[in-house]
Amino acid sequence: MNLGAPYEAIIKKTIDKGYAASQTEVVRQALIVYDRILEEEEYTLVHKAVKEELAEIKSGKTRTYSLKDLRKSVKR
User: Fold this and answer.
1) Closest CA to 65 of 76, 53, 73
2) Whole-model pTM?
């Protein structure tokens, strides 16, 4: 595996410290961590969007409808 000097140094350091036994294991671990980071980022973005939307609803900028009102509008 040829990833370039900076990445090879990180892999070597990780193996030398005993955190992994091989390059493949280091890459697998890194991918797992990266996947978790992406999931956390997605959660944070969704949470932020929901919070902003709720603030708009509370301020009256966004109108809400009851299920009953929606059903009436569909029957028209």
Assistant:
1) 73
2) 0.67
